[in-house]
UniProtKB/TrEMBL annotation, chains A, B:
Keyword list, A-Z: DNA-binding, Transcription, Transcription regulation
Residue ranges of DNA binding: 43-62
Protein name, as recorded: TetR/AcrR family transcriptional regulator
Keyword set includes Transcription regulation: yes
Organism: Caulobacter zeae
Region (Disordered): 1-21
Statement: the UniProt record of this protein carries the keyword Transmembrane helix: no
Span of domain HTH tetR-type: 20-80
Amino acid sequence: MTVALKKPPRSARKPKGDGHMRRGEILAAAEKIFIAEGYAGATIRKIADAVGVSSTALYMHFRDKDQILLEIGKEAIEKLLSINVALSQEPIDAVEKVRRMLDAYMRFAFDNPNTYQLVFCGSNEAISIEKQQAVSDLGDRCFDEFSGPIREIAAAGRLKTGTAESAAQVLWAACHGIVSLVITKPSRNWAPAEELMQVTLDGVMHGLIADR
Amino acid sequence: MTVALKKPPRSARKPKGDGHMRRGEILAAAEKIFIAEGYAGATIRKIADAVGVSSTALYMHFRDKDQILLEIGKEAIEKLLSINVALSQEPIDAVEKVRRMLDAYMRFAFDNPNTYQLVFCGSNEAISIEKQQAVSDLGDRCFDEFSGPIREIAAAGRLKTGTAESAAQVLWAACHGIVSLVITKPSRNWAPAEELMQVTLDGVMHGLIADR
DNA sequence: GCTCTGGGTGATTCCCGTTTAGTGTCAGGT
DNA sequence: ACCTGACACTAAACGGGAATCACCCAGAGC
């Protein structure tokens, strides 16, 4: 009842994370909190507590908070990229490829709203451009994969308006528009998500691409 | 040269703002800083300094920081609303109304990127739903004004896909998509804004609305 | 003269991300 | 067996945000 109070900090100390083990632990905890509470809610201290480690320890493995969250974003985009890569290798019509890529894109956004916001919405205006470079590069590769079939379509003279470049950007933007609005303004009276995706896809595909 | 150092806080004190004068002063200063430095950059302290008043004084006139910035957003949307109201009263075809409203919307966004982000992008995930109510209501009225002609078009059986409700949302979202991406991701290789607006409008109008 | 009131203030609180100055542990060379 | 240095980690502190507190004071109305 007397002593045994001088040493608890020692016993409470978390054992070493055996190199990069700890890094994964941090990311896992951060992702859970981030998905549940968004960018602002995922504080360094909360993440550290979840891992069972002091907040300072996170700086052993990551330069700063943004790097932790962008890492999460990176992993998410990699999934998106792999979907696009897989689709672009399917032996199907370029138009069908475009449609499926956009569909997958919107579903991805609805399935991972916080991550989507982190990466694709300006929610992170605080994050400097350079820090986003890694994620941004992945995003570019996603877009490139998507641009391929569009260029095919353009080359076939089936583009109703714009260039391959601007058409690709507009197609992407239309899908981004609907998902980002639904995600960031959940209180509005939105039509069912399925219907919105459908109408967006139909409208924008028919509007930009000549069918046949 | 000796004293005159004990009293400056007194002489430096700003005279009373004569009621609601001060409120306008604060809004003006806040808007300037906010437009120049965005949401995060417009801190209470900076705004107060610009007005020449202590940070606490702002809480005399506004409940909190968000209310100040949302007030700015409100004024901006009012402009947008008045444009829509004016357009909806013009004696022109409903389709032309829709096109002009969307065009005005995108130009407004490009002209007021920070304000647009504040109001329409999730950059303010920290702002609680209820606080946004006033702005949100104005947004609804804007959308209603826009929905009018769309309903006309739907009633005329000229909607290629979706309902009046979902078509209106998708049209809006497409325009939101392109402007929000260009605004929040300025580092990407975007096609010229004019071209993007043109392609978006053409694509989405032809895709959703039967011409004639 | 007096009080009451409302715009104003400095100090304080709490939380954030980040930095500093360490501490304990262990692998490997001697 | 002993040093040594790298490493994972820590408590404490810093600076800066929003917001709140307990006051203060000039002036209007009596």
